[in-house]
Structure formats: C-alpha cells, structure tokens
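Supplementary Note 3. Input sequence used for the single-chain structure prediction.
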Amino acid sequence: MKYLVVPAVAAFLLAVGASLSAPAQAAASRVEAGAELVQSCKSFLKGEANVDDVVGSASCKSYAVGLVSAVNNGREPGAPFEVHRLGPNEDETVCFEPPQLIRFDEFAKLAVGYAEEHPDLLDKPALELSARALASKYPCSTE
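The predicted structure, written as discrete structure tokens, is reproduced below.
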C-alpha cells in the first residue's frame, strides 16, 4: 500500500505549534526548508549552550517526532513508507523502511550529513531532505 505524507505532515505541524511555548513555537514553525532543518539539527548536536541552541535543538527534536508520527500514522506497521511529489518536477518518489527506533542524535546526524553531500536540498522542503536522507540509510527492499 502506498501513502502520501503531506496531510499527516500538515497535521503534525499544527500539533507541534499548539504544544510548544511561544519562542519555541516560532522556531518550530520555521523548520520548513532543508536549511532550517539542518540549522536546528546542528544546534541539537552542538548542545544547549545558549538560547538559540535551545530553540534550535527543540525544533530539530519536534520535527523528528512529528516525522516519525506522520510515518507511523501513514502506513501499516512494518510496511515501507513512500513520499511522493518530490524533485524539481514533483514527479519523484522516495521510499524508505523506517527503523523501529531512531534516536534524536542519529536523525540529526543523518539529516546534517546528507545535506552536506546534497547541498541542493537546502532550498527544498525539510520533508524532501529528511525523506531522502532516511531513504539513503533505510532504503526499501527491491523484492
């Protein structure tokens, strides 16, 4: 079964916005493009040394939680997950088999590392960057 992630991600963004305090909410709402995701995940990996790092760290974690929630709500347990309408012509699909558990630091390192290898994704939606990063580490089986 194939699923489209867009409605679930929209629901996630609303839920995140409603659950965070005002300063963190503003930062979380800025995680729309790949560049914002990378910056917030770099803050998470750096640690919470100052206010910007605290907000960035919370944004990275909130994004990861929302993505996992969207994936889990958008597929049958154990099934692969597909994200559609990616790429410059919105005609690409990315498929990944989510692990049972992924730690925040693993997700952050994966997103940041993938963006370093694919800087063209910094201008794309955070969903495209994160889906492609997850697909690079957890690709769908070709059976």
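Residues 51-73 form the longest helix (23 residues). Residues 15 and 44 are 21 Å apart (CA to CA).
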